[in-house]
Amino acid sequence: MSTPNPSVSTRGTAQIGVTGLAVMGRNLARNLARHGYVTAVHNRSFAKTASLVADHGGEGAFVASESMADFVASLERPRKVIVMVKAGGPTDAVIGELVALLDEGDIVIDAGNAHFPDTVRRERELKAHGLHFVGSGVSGGEEGALLGPSIMPGGSPESYAVLGPILEDIAAKVDGVPCCTYVGPDGAGHFVKMVHNGIEYADMQLIAEAYDLLRQGLGASAAQIAEIFRDWNGGELESFLIEITADVLAHTDAETGQAFVDVVLDQAEQKGTGRWTVQNALDLGVPITGIAEATFARALSGSVPQRAAGVRALEGHAGTWDVTDRDAFIEDVRLALLASKVVAYSQGFDQIAAASAQFGWAIDRGAMARIWRGGCIIRARFLNRITEAYERDSGLALLLADEYFVETVGKGVGAWRRTVSQAALNGVPTPAFSSSLAYYDGVRADRLPANLIQAQRDFFGAHTYRRTDRGGTFHTDWTGNRTESPA
Fold first, then answer.
1. What DSSP line would sit under 277-342, residue for residue?
2. Which of 51, 154, 229, 394 is the most buried (most CB within 10 A)?
3. Residue 321: its pLDDT value, please?
Protein backbone atom coordinates (compact mmCIF):
# COMPACT_ATOMS: atom_id res chain seq x y z
CA MET A 1 0.00 0.00 0.00
CA SER A 2 1.04 3.58 -0.50
CA THR A 3 2.10 5.81 2.37
CA PRO A 4 -1.00 6.98 4.30
CA ASN A 5 -2.18 10.53 3.74
CA PRO A 6 -2.39 12.02 7.27
CA SER A 7 -5.73 13.74 6.91
CA VAL A 8 -9.46 13.25 7.29
CA SER A 9 -10.68 12.18 3.86
CA THR A 10 -13.58 13.64 1.92
CA ARG A 11 -16.85 11.70 1.85
CA GLY A 12 -17.55 8.84 -0.50
CA THR A 13 -14.00 7.56 -0.79
CA ALA A 14 -13.62 5.14 2.12
CA GLN A 15 -12.39 1.68 1.15
CA ILE A 16 -13.57 0.01 4.35
CA GLY A 17 -15.46 1.04 7.48
CA VAL A 18 -15.53 0.22 11.17
CA THR A 19 -18.58 0.80 13.34
CA GLY A 20 -18.09 0.38 17.07
CA LEU A 21 -15.06 2.23 18.37
CA ALA A 22 -14.33 0.74 21.76
CA VAL A 23 -10.69 -0.27 22.21
CA MET A 24 -10.69 -3.16 19.71
CA GLY A 25 -12.65 -1.31 17.04
CA ARG A 26 -10.62 1.85 17.50
CA ASN A 27 -7.33 -0.02 17.13
CA LEU A 28 -8.52 -2.03 14.16
CA ALA A 29 -9.55 1.20 12.41
CA ARG A 30 -6.12 2.67 13.15
CA ASN A 31 -4.45 -0.46 11.80
CA LEU A 32 -6.39 -0.13 8.54
CA ALA A 33 -5.56 3.56 8.22
CA ARG A 34 -1.89 2.94 8.97
CA HIS A 35 -1.81 0.50 6.06
CA GLY A 36 -3.05 3.18 3.70
CA TYR A 37 -6.75 2.31 3.56
CA VAL A 38 -9.18 5.21 3.64
CA THR A 39 -11.20 4.13 6.66
CA ALA A 40 -14.75 5.19 7.50
CA VAL A 41 -15.38 5.32 11.26
CA HIS A 42 -18.63 5.44 13.20
CA ASN A 43 -19.78 4.97 16.76
CA ARG A 44 -23.15 5.31 18.45
CA SER A 45 -21.59 8.10 20.47
CA PHE A 46 -19.99 10.56 18.04
CA ALA A 47 -17.62 11.72 20.77
CA LYS A 48 -15.63 8.48 20.38
CA THR A 49 -15.48 8.96 16.62
CA ALA A 50 -14.28 12.52 16.98
CA SER A 51 -11.76 11.47 19.61
CA LEU A 52 -10.29 8.82 17.31
CA VAL A 53 -9.77 11.32 14.50
CA ALA A 54 -8.44 14.01 16.84
CA ASP A 55 -5.98 11.67 18.53
CA HIS A 56 -4.87 9.58 15.56
CA GLY A 57 -5.81 11.45 12.40
CA GLY A 58 -2.14 11.73 11.54
CA GLU A 59 -1.87 7.96 11.15
CA GLY A 60 -3.91 7.82 7.95
CA ALA A 61 -7.08 8.87 6.17
CA PHE A 62 -10.34 8.64 8.12
CA VAL A 63 -13.92 9.48 7.17
CA ALA A 64 -15.80 10.34 10.35
CA SER A 65 -19.60 10.06 10.28
CA GLU A 66 -22.14 10.89 12.95
CA SER A 67 -25.03 8.84 11.54
CA MET A 68 -25.11 5.29 10.24
CA ALA A 69 -26.59 6.52 6.97
CA ASP A 70 -23.69 8.93 6.41
CA PHE A 71 -21.24 6.19 7.41
CA VAL A 72 -22.63 3.80 4.78
CA ALA A 73 -22.76 6.58 2.17
CA SER A 74 -19.06 7.28 2.72
CA LEU A 75 -18.04 3.79 1.56
CA GLU A 76 -17.11 2.82 -1.97
CA ARG A 77 -18.84 -0.23 -3.47
CA PRO A 78 -18.94 -3.03 -2.77
CA ARG A 79 -19.18 -1.63 0.73
CA LYS A 80 -17.15 -3.41 3.39
CA VAL A 81 -18.35 -2.76 6.95
CA ILE A 82 -16.64 -4.18 10.03
CA VAL A 83 -18.94 -4.42 13.06
CA MET A 84 -17.11 -4.19 16.40
CA VAL A 85 -19.85 -4.10 19.03
CA LYS A 86 -20.86 -6.36 21.92
CA ALA A 87 -21.90 -9.88 20.86
CA GLY A 88 -25.54 -10.89 20.88
CA GLY A 89 -28.37 -8.37 20.78
CA PRO A 90 -26.21 -5.29 20.12
CA THR A 91 -24.66 -7.00 17.08
CA ASP A 92 -28.10 -7.94 15.72
CA ALA A 93 -29.28 -4.36 16.23
CA VAL A 94 -26.37 -2.88 14.29
CA ILE A 95 -26.72 -5.45 11.51
CA GLY A 96 -30.43 -4.70 11.26
CA GLU A 97 -29.67 -1.00 10.89
CA LEU A 98 -27.06 -1.69 8.22
CA VAL A 99 -29.22 -4.04 6.13
CA ALA A 100 -31.69 -1.27 5.41
CA LEU A 101 -28.89 0.94 4.06
CA LEU A 102 -26.75 -1.52 2.08
CA ASP A 103 -27.02 -2.75 -1.51
CA GLU A 104 -26.67 -6.15 -3.11
CA GLY A 105 -23.09 -7.41 -3.03
CA ASP A 106 -22.05 -5.36 0.00
CA ILE A 107 -20.15 -7.15 2.78
CA VAL A 108 -20.82 -7.04 6.53
CA ILE A 109 -18.02 -8.37 8.75
CA ASP A 110 -18.69 -9.28 12.39
CA ALA A 111 -15.23 -9.26 13.96
CA GLY A 112 -16.41 -9.76 17.53
CA ASN A 113 -16.56 -12.96 19.60
CA ALA A 114 -19.91 -14.16 18.28
CA HIS A 115 -21.25 -17.63 18.97
CA PHE A 116 -20.97 -19.49 15.69
CA PRO A 117 -24.66 -20.56 15.49
CA ASP A 118 -25.52 -16.84 15.52
CA THR A 119 -23.10 -16.36 12.64
CA VAL A 120 -24.71 -19.20 10.68
CA ARG A 121 -28.13 -17.56 11.20
CA ARG A 122 -26.92 -14.08 10.27
CA GLU A 123 -25.16 -15.32 7.15
CA ARG A 124 -28.39 -17.01 6.01
CA GLU A 125 -30.50 -13.95 6.77
CA LEU A 126 -28.20 -11.51 4.98
CA LYS A 127 -27.85 -13.79 1.98
CA ALA A 128 -31.62 -13.43 1.51
CA HIS A 129 -31.00 -9.68 1.08
CA GLY A 130 -28.21 -10.27 -1.45
CA LEU A 131 -25.55 -9.34 1.11
CA HIS A 132 -22.39 -11.17 2.13
CA PHE A 133 -21.91 -11.80 5.83
CA VAL A 134 -18.48 -12.66 7.16
CA GLY A 135 -18.06 -13.94 10.70
CA SER A 136 -14.41 -13.35 11.45
CA GLY A 137 -12.42 -14.31 14.49
CA VAL A 138 -9.82 -11.71 15.48
CA SER A 139 -7.24 -12.61 18.11
CA GLY A 140 -4.46 -10.64 19.68
CA GLY A 141 -6.21 -8.29 22.07
CA GLU A 142 -6.00 -4.54 21.73
CA GLU A 143 -2.31 -4.60 20.82
CA GLY A 144 -2.89 -7.20 18.11
CA ALA A 145 -5.78 -5.23 16.65
CA LEU A 146 -3.43 -2.26 16.24
CA LEU A 147 -0.15 -3.94 15.27
CA GLY A 148 -1.36 -7.05 13.49
CA PRO A 149 -3.80 -9.71 14.75
CA SER A 150 -4.48 -13.27 13.70
CA ILE A 151 -7.63 -13.13 11.59
CA MET A 152 -10.00 -16.06 10.94
CA PRO A 153 -12.68 -15.05 8.39
CA GLY A 154 -15.53 -17.28 7.29
CA GLY A 155 -18.34 -16.56 4.84
CA SER A 156 -18.46 -16.96 1.08
CA PRO A 157 -15.35 -17.41 -1.08
CA GLU A 158 -16.59 -14.44 -3.13
CA SER A 159 -16.52 -12.16 -0.10
CA TYR A 160 -13.00 -13.31 0.76
CA ALA A 161 -11.83 -12.53 -2.78
CA VAL A 162 -12.78 -8.90 -2.10
CA LEU A 163 -11.97 -8.65 1.58
CA GLY A 164 -9.07 -11.08 1.93
CA PRO A 165 -6.30 -8.86 0.51
CA ILE A 166 -7.14 -6.13 3.05
CA LEU A 167 -7.28 -8.52 6.00
CA GLU A 168 -4.06 -10.25 4.98
CA ASP A 169 -2.40 -6.85 4.68
CA ILE A 170 -3.25 -5.77 8.23
CA ALA A 171 -2.72 -9.19 9.86
CA ALA A 172 0.41 -10.24 11.72
CA LYS A 173 3.16 -11.75 9.58
CA VAL A 174 5.42 -14.69 10.40
CA ASP A 175 8.27 -15.34 7.97
CA GLY A 176 6.46 -12.98 5.60
CA VAL A 177 3.27 -15.10 5.67
CA PRO A 178 0.05 -13.36 6.79
CA CYS A 179 -1.68 -14.77 9.86
CA CYS A 180 -4.97 -14.72 7.98
CA THR A 181 -6.63 -17.14 5.58
CA TYR A 182 -10.09 -18.11 4.41
CA VAL A 183 -11.47 -20.59 6.96
CA GLY A 184 -14.70 -21.83 5.41
CA PRO A 185 -18.43 -21.11 4.87
CA ASP A 186 -20.93 -19.42 7.21
CA GLY A 187 -19.90 -19.98 10.86
CA ALA A 188 -16.49 -21.59 10.25
CA GLY A 189 -14.45 -18.49 11.12
CA HIS A 190 -16.15 -17.84 14.43
CA PHE A 191 -16.07 -21.56 15.24
CA VAL A 192 -12.30 -21.69 14.82
CA LYS A 193 -11.94 -18.56 16.96
CA MET A 194 -14.11 -20.21 19.64
CA VAL A 195 -11.84 -23.26 19.70
CA HIS A 196 -8.80 -20.96 19.74
CA ASN A 197 -10.21 -19.41 22.90
CA GLY A 198 -10.91 -22.83 24.39
CA ILE A 199 -7.27 -23.80 23.86
CA GLU A 200 -6.37 -20.45 25.42
CA TYR A 201 -8.37 -21.39 28.53
CA ALA A 202 -6.47 -24.68 28.82
CA ASP A 203 -3.10 -23.03 28.20
CA MET A 204 -3.69 -20.41 30.89
CA GLN A 205 -4.90 -22.98 33.43
CA LEU A 206 -1.89 -25.21 32.78
CA ILE A 207 0.47 -22.27 33.25
CA ALA A 208 -1.33 -21.35 36.48
CA GLU A 209 -0.99 -24.92 37.74
CA ALA A 210 2.72 -24.91 36.90
CA TYR A 211 3.10 -21.65 38.84
CA ASP A 212 1.25 -23.16 41.81
CA LEU A 213 3.39 -26.29 41.77
CA LEU A 214 6.60 -24.26 41.72
CA ARG A 215 5.36 -22.04 44.51
CA GLN A 216 4.18 -24.83 46.77
CA GLY A 217 6.89 -27.35 45.92
CA LEU A 218 9.84 -24.96 46.11
CA GLY A 219 8.45 -22.24 48.36
CA ALA A 220 9.67 -19.88 45.62
CA SER A 221 8.65 -16.22 45.42
CA ALA A 222 6.75 -14.81 42.47
CA ALA A 223 9.93 -13.05 41.29
CA GLN A 224 11.90 -16.31 41.42
CA ILE A 225 9.19 -18.12 39.46
CA ALA A 226 9.24 -15.28 36.93
CA GLU A 227 12.86 -16.12 36.22
CA ILE A 228 11.96 -19.78 35.72
CA PHE A 229 9.30 -18.82 33.19
CA ARG A 230 11.73 -16.49 31.41
CA ASP A 231 14.13 -19.39 31.08
CA TRP A 232 11.36 -21.65 29.77
CA ASN A 233 10.41 -19.04 27.19
CA GLY A 234 13.82 -19.51 25.59
CA GLY A 235 13.07 -23.10 24.65
CA GLU A 236 10.26 -25.40 23.48
CA LEU A 237 7.69 -23.57 25.61
CA GLU A 238 8.31 -20.22 23.92
CA SER A 239 4.95 -18.50 23.57
CA PHE A 240 3.12 -15.26 24.18
CA LEU A 241 1.42 -16.61 27.31
CA ILE A 242 4.67 -17.85 28.87
CA GLU A 243 6.27 -14.47 28.09
CA ILE A 244 3.53 -12.42 29.73
CA THR A 245 3.39 -14.81 32.71
CA ALA A 246 7.02 -13.96 33.48
CA ASP A 247 6.19 -10.25 33.24
CA VAL A 248 3.15 -10.56 35.51
CA LEU A 249 5.04 -12.56 38.13
CA ALA A 250 7.91 -10.07 38.16
CA HIS A 251 5.59 -7.09 38.64
CA THR A 252 5.42 -5.39 42.05
CA ASP A 253 2.23 -3.76 43.35
CA ALA A 254 2.91 -0.04 43.74
CA GLU A 255 0.53 0.39 46.69
CA THR A 256 1.64 -2.50 48.91
CA GLY A 257 5.12 -3.32 47.64
CA GLN A 258 4.08 -6.97 47.42
CA ALA A 259 4.28 -9.16 44.34
CA PHE A 260 1.38 -8.01 42.19
CA VAL A 261 0.06 -11.54 41.71
CA ASP A 262 -0.29 -11.90 45.49
CA VAL A 263 -2.76 -9.02 45.76
CA VAL A 264 -4.98 -10.25 42.91
CA LEU A 265 -8.15 -12.06 44.06
CA ASP A 266 -8.06 -15.73 43.07
CA GLN A 267 -11.40 -15.77 41.26
CA ALA A 268 -11.04 -16.08 37.48
CA GLU A 269 -13.77 -14.73 35.27
CA GLN A 270 -14.81 -15.69 31.75
CA LYS A 271 -16.81 -14.22 28.88
CA GLY A 272 -18.25 -17.49 27.56
CA THR A 273 -16.08 -18.73 24.70
CA GLY A 274 -14.56 -21.51 26.81
CA ARG A 275 -18.01 -22.60 27.90
CA TRP A 276 -19.23 -22.58 24.28
CA THR A 277 -16.25 -24.72 23.29
CA VAL A 278 -17.04 -27.34 25.92
CA GLN A 279 -20.76 -27.34 25.12
CA ASN A 280 -20.07 -27.85 21.44
CA ALA A 281 -17.56 -30.62 22.14
CA LEU A 282 -20.25 -32.46 24.10
CA ASP A 283 -22.61 -32.09 21.13
CA LEU A 284 -19.94 -33.43 18.77
CA GLY A 285 -18.81 -36.17 21.14
CA VAL A 286 -15.21 -34.93 21.12
CA PRO A 287 -13.21 -35.33 24.37
CA ILE A 288 -11.55 -31.98 25.08
CA THR A 289 -10.82 -32.83 28.69
CA GLY A 290 -8.07 -30.25 29.27
CA ILE A 291 -10.22 -27.40 27.95
CA ALA A 292 -13.21 -28.61 29.97
CA GLU A 293 -11.23 -28.85 33.20
CA ALA A 294 -9.77 -25.39 32.62
CA THR A 295 -13.27 -23.99 32.17
CA PHE A 296 -14.55 -25.75 35.29
CA ALA A 297 -11.47 -24.58 37.23
CA ARG A 298 -12.52 -20.98 36.57
CA ALA A 299 -16.01 -21.83 37.77
CA LEU A 300 -14.59 -23.46 40.92
CA SER A 301 -12.41 -20.44 41.63
CA GLY A 302 -15.54 -18.29 41.67
CA SER A 303 -17.56 -20.71 43.82
CA VAL A 304 -17.08 -18.61 46.95
CA PRO A 305 -19.59 -20.22 49.36
CA GLN A 306 -18.49 -23.73 48.42
CA ARG A 307 -14.81 -22.91 48.80
CA ALA A 308 -15.42 -21.25 52.15
CA ALA A 309 -17.27 -24.33 53.38
CA GLY A 310 -14.52 -26.60 52.04
CA VAL A 311 -11.73 -24.65 53.75
CA ARG A 312 -13.55 -24.99 57.08
CA ALA A 313 -14.60 -28.62 56.85
CA LEU A 314 -12.49 -30.73 54.52
CA GLU A 315 -9.36 -32.56 55.60
CA GLY A 316 -6.57 -32.95 53.06
CA HIS A 317 -4.65 -35.85 54.61
CA ALA A 318 -1.83 -34.61 52.41
CA GLY A 319 1.89 -34.89 52.80
CA THR A 320 4.40 -32.10 53.23
CA TRP A 321 6.25 -31.40 50.04
CA ASP A 322 9.97 -31.97 50.37
CA VAL A 323 11.80 -31.26 47.13
CA THR A 324 15.37 -32.53 47.40
CA ASP A 325 16.51 -31.66 43.86
CA ARG A 326 15.30 -28.21 42.85
CA ASP A 327 16.49 -28.35 39.25
CA ALA A 328 15.02 -31.80 38.66
CA PHE A 329 11.67 -30.68 40.06
CA ILE A 330 11.60 -27.59 37.81
CA GLU A 331 12.43 -29.74 34.80
CA ASP A 332 9.63 -32.18 35.69
CA VAL A 333 7.10 -29.35 35.84
CA ARG A 334 8.39 -27.94 32.54
CA LEU A 335 8.03 -31.26 30.75
CA ALA A 336 4.60 -31.87 32.27
CA LEU A 337 3.51 -28.41 31.12
CA LEU A 338 4.78 -28.98 27.60
CA ALA A 339 3.08 -32.38 27.29
CA SER A 340 -0.21 -31.05 28.67
CA LYS A 341 -0.14 -28.05 26.33
CA VAL A 342 0.31 -30.36 23.34
CA VAL A 343 -2.73 -32.36 24.51
CA ALA A 344 -4.83 -29.18 24.65
CA TYR A 345 -3.91 -28.25 21.08
CA SER A 346 -4.43 -31.83 19.88
CA GLN A 347 -7.90 -31.90 21.40
CA GLY A 348 -8.77 -28.51 19.91
CA PHE A 349 -7.74 -29.58 16.42
CA ASP A 350 -9.81 -32.77 16.85
CA GLN A 351 -12.81 -30.58 17.61
CA ILE A 352 -12.20 -28.46 14.51
CA ALA A 353 -11.99 -31.62 12.39
CA ALA A 354 -15.24 -32.99 13.82
CA ALA A 355 -17.16 -29.76 13.27
CA SER A 356 -15.72 -29.32 9.80
CA ALA A 357 -16.98 -32.78 8.86
CA GLN A 358 -20.40 -32.25 10.43
CA PHE A 359 -21.04 -28.84 8.89
CA GLY A 360 -19.25 -29.36 5.58
CA TRP A 361 -16.70 -26.59 6.16
CA ALA A 362 -13.57 -28.33 4.78
CA ILE A 363 -11.30 -26.49 7.25
CA ASP A 364 -7.59 -26.88 6.66
CA ARG A 365 -6.14 -27.56 10.12
CA GLY A 366 -2.60 -26.91 8.96
CA ALA A 367 -3.65 -23.46 7.75
CA MET A 368 -5.24 -22.76 11.13
CA ALA A 369 -2.00 -23.65 12.91
CA ARG A 370 -0.12 -21.42 10.48
CA ILE A 371 -2.26 -18.33 11.10
CA TRP A 372 -2.03 -18.87 14.88
CA ARG A 373 1.76 -18.54 14.79
CA GLY A 374 1.60 -14.74 15.15
CA GLY A 375 -0.72 -12.04 16.41
CA CYS A 376 -2.97 -14.27 18.50
CA ILE A 377 -2.97 -15.04 22.22
CA ILE A 378 -2.00 -18.71 21.84
CA ARG A 379 0.90 -18.08 19.48
CA ALA A 380 3.71 -20.47 20.35
CA ARG A 381 6.88 -21.91 18.88
CA PHE A 382 5.46 -25.41 18.45
CA LEU A 383 2.66 -24.16 16.18
CA ASN A 384 5.31 -24.40 13.45
CA ARG A 385 5.52 -28.09 14.29
CA ILE A 386 1.75 -28.46 14.19
CA THR A 387 1.67 -26.81 10.77
CA GLU A 388 4.35 -29.25 9.57
CA ALA A 389 2.43 -32.21 11.01
CA TYR A 390 -0.67 -31.39 8.95
CA GLU A 391 1.48 -30.71 5.89
CA ARG A 392 2.82 -34.25 6.23
CA ASP A 393 -0.69 -35.66 6.67
CA SER A 394 -3.69 -33.35 6.20
CA GLY A 395 -6.00 -36.09 7.48
CA LEU A 396 -3.94 -36.80 10.61
CA ALA A 397 -6.29 -38.62 13.00
CA LEU A 398 -4.43 -37.62 16.17
CA LEU A 399 -1.93 -34.79 16.44
CA LEU A 400 -0.26 -36.58 19.36
CA ALA A 401 0.54 -39.46 16.99
CA ASP A 402 2.60 -37.28 14.65
CA GLU A 403 6.25 -38.33 14.75
CA TYR A 404 7.46 -35.04 16.23
CA PHE A 405 4.91 -35.00 19.02
CA VAL A 406 5.35 -38.70 19.78
CA GLU A 407 8.98 -37.88 20.58
CA THR A 408 8.31 -34.53 22.28
CA VAL A 409 5.57 -35.77 24.59
CA GLY A 410 7.16 -39.18 25.06
CA LYS A 411 10.33 -37.76 26.59
CA GLY A 412 8.24 -36.05 29.27
CA VAL A 413 5.80 -38.79 30.26
CA GLY A 414 7.82 -39.86 33.29
CA ALA A 415 8.07 -36.27 34.50
CA TRP A 416 4.37 -35.80 33.82
CA ARG A 417 3.48 -38.80 35.98
CA ARG A 418 5.78 -37.69 38.80
CA THR A 419 4.33 -34.19 38.73
CA VAL A 420 0.70 -35.28 38.80
CA SER A 421 1.25 -37.96 41.45
CA GLN A 422 3.25 -35.66 43.73
CA ALA A 423 0.60 -32.96 43.36
CA ALA A 424 -2.08 -35.46 44.40
CA LEU A 425 -0.05 -36.77 47.34
CA ASN A 426 0.55 -33.23 48.58
CA GLY A 427 -2.99 -31.95 48.07
CA VAL A 428 -2.27 -29.49 45.23
CA PRO A 429 -5.11 -29.39 42.66
CA THR A 430 -3.92 -29.88 39.08
CA PRO A 431 -7.13 -30.57 37.14
CA ALA A 432 -5.72 -29.66 33.73
CA PHE A 433 -2.41 -31.52 34.19
CA SER A 434 -4.21 -34.56 35.57
CA SER A 435 -6.98 -34.73 32.98
CA SER A 436 -4.47 -34.24 30.15
CA LEU A 437 -2.41 -37.17 31.40
CA ALA A 438 -5.57 -39.28 31.77
CA TYR A 439 -6.51 -38.43 28.18
CA TYR A 440 -3.03 -39.40 26.99
CA ASP A 441 -3.32 -42.75 28.76
CA GLY A 442 -6.86 -43.22 27.51
CA VAL A 443 -6.13 -42.52 23.86
CA ARG A 444 -3.10 -44.85 23.89
CA ALA A 445 -4.91 -47.69 25.72
CA ASP A 446 -5.45 -50.88 23.74
CA ARG A 447 -8.66 -51.57 25.69
CA LEU A 448 -10.77 -49.33 27.92
CA PRO A 449 -13.36 -50.30 30.57
CA ALA A 450 -16.15 -48.97 28.34
CA ASN A 451 -17.02 -52.63 27.66
CA LEU A 452 -18.39 -52.85 31.20
CA ILE A 453 -20.34 -49.61 30.76
CA GLN A 454 -21.93 -50.89 27.56
CA ALA A 455 -22.88 -54.17 29.28
CA GLN A 456 -24.43 -52.20 32.15
CA ARG A 457 -26.42 -50.09 29.67
CA ASP A 458 -27.77 -53.22 28.05
CA PHE A 459 -28.70 -54.66 31.46
CA PHE A 460 -30.81 -51.76 32.70
CA GLY A 461 -31.97 -50.20 29.44
CA ALA A 462 -31.67 -52.81 26.67
CA HIS A 463 -29.31 -50.45 24.86
CA THR A 464 -27.56 -53.35 23.10
CA TYR A 465 -23.88 -54.01 22.58
CA ARG A 466 -21.42 -55.22 19.96
CA ARG A 467 -19.04 -58.14 20.37
CA THR A 468 -15.30 -58.42 19.78
CA ASP A 469 -15.55 -61.80 18.03
CA ARG A 470 -18.23 -61.21 15.39
CA GLY A 471 -20.22 -58.46 13.72
CA GLY A 472 -23.71 -57.25 14.54
CA THR A 473 -25.54 -55.76 17.51
CA PHE A 474 -26.88 -57.88 20.38
CA HIS A 475 -29.02 -57.85 23.51
CA THR A 476 -29.00 -60.23 26.48
CA ASP A 477 -32.24 -61.11 28.28
CA TRP A 478 -30.87 -60.15 31.69
CA THR A 479 -34.11 -60.58 33.67
CA GLY A 480 -35.00 -63.89 31.98
CA ASN A 481 -32.84 -66.82 30.96
CA ARG A 482 -29.93 -64.55 29.92
CA THR A 483 -29.89 -65.75 26.36
CA GLU A 484 -28.35 -63.51 23.75
CA SER A 485 -30.16 -62.50 20.59
CA PRO A 486 -29.39 -60.21 17.66
CA ALA A 487 -30.84 -56.75 18.22
1. HHHHHHHHT---HHHHHHHHHHHHHT-HHHHHHHHHH----------S-HHHHHHHHHHHHHHHHH
2. 154
3. 87
